[in-house]
Amino acid sequence: SQQGEEDPQALSIQEGENATMNCSYKTSINNLQWYRQNSGRGLVHLILIRSNEREKHSGRLRVTLDTSKKSSSLLITASRAADTASYFCATGSSGGYNKLIFGAGTRLAVHP
Amino acid sequence: GAGVSQTPSNKVTEKGKYVELRCDPISGHTALYWYRQSLGQGPEFLIYFQGTGAADDSGLPNDRFFAVRPEGSVSTLKIQRTERGDSAVYLCASATGQGGAGELFFGEGSRLTVL
């Protein structure tokens, strides 16, 4: 079963626009991570936010976490055609190890 | 190489056959994970190793699936009596295993097609 639910399932934007993807989850977490997957490739880690953090930045990426609403968002600013990929949120529970449960992902298409 | 290596990259087999998928993690990573990804879905957790032992195999769908990591490095996922529903991309990931929370480094996956 999958813990996270991403919204929207698909997003199509023009280069230069911002892209916002949302993730909701069901159980308590230790951390939440975002991964990117290009078509036919493996997943690449983008950013990790811990349960006691509310916001984190990395380059053009901004992640927020609201544990009271069990939700997170990923914002990609000034998008580029190369950002076209699927984006997945994954939640890590407590328990001393990093068992990540992934959502179904958001497919982002950035058009030149 | 520096990353997680998975072989084969593609495997086509017939229903009922036995399959082995191999994962070579990043050197020094004690944590190793297997996930399965169906088309249009996110990765689904199968099993987690810390060192040589399977710390959590709760995601293995049934007893046809088995994984080993005898020396705490390379891991093999074994699928017996394959079924068409086993067709998916099998992803391996490794992590440092320190502190519990950290990023996973994924391989490119092994695409299994059961005819």
Summarize the structure.
The complex is a heterodimer of chains A (112) and B (115). With 112 residues, chain A is mostly beta strands.
Descriptive notes:
The complex is a heterodimer of chains A (112) and B (115). Chain A is mostly beta strands and 112 residues long. Chain A has strands spanning 5-7, 10-14, 19-24, 31-37, 43-50, 55-58, 61-66, 71-76, 85-92, 100-102, 106-111. In chain A, the strands form two sheets. In chain A, strands 2, 4, 5, 9, 10 and 11 form a six-stranded mixed β-sheet that branches. In chain A, strands 1-3-8-7-6 form a five-stranded antiparallel β-sheet, with no helix packed on it. The mean pLDDT of chain A is 91. Chain B is mostly beta strands and 115 residues long. Chain B contains no helices and eleven strands. Chain B has strands at residues 5-7, 10-13, 19-24, 31-37, 44-50, 53-56, 65-68, 75-79, 88-95, 105-106, 110-114. In chain B, the strands form two sheets. In chain B, strands 2, 4, 5, 6, 9, 10 and 11 form a seven-stranded mixed β-sheet that branches. In chain B, strands 1-3-8-7 form a four-stranded antiparallel β-sheet, with no helix packed on it. In chain B, a hairpin with a 6-residue loop joins strand 4 and strand 5. The radius of gyration of chain B is 13 Å and the shape is globular. The model of chain B has no long low-confidence stretch (mean pLDDT 93). The chains are: A mainly beta (112), B mainly beta (115). At the A-B interface, strand 4, strand 5, strand 9 and strand 10 of A face strand 4, strand 5, strand 9 and strand 10 of B.
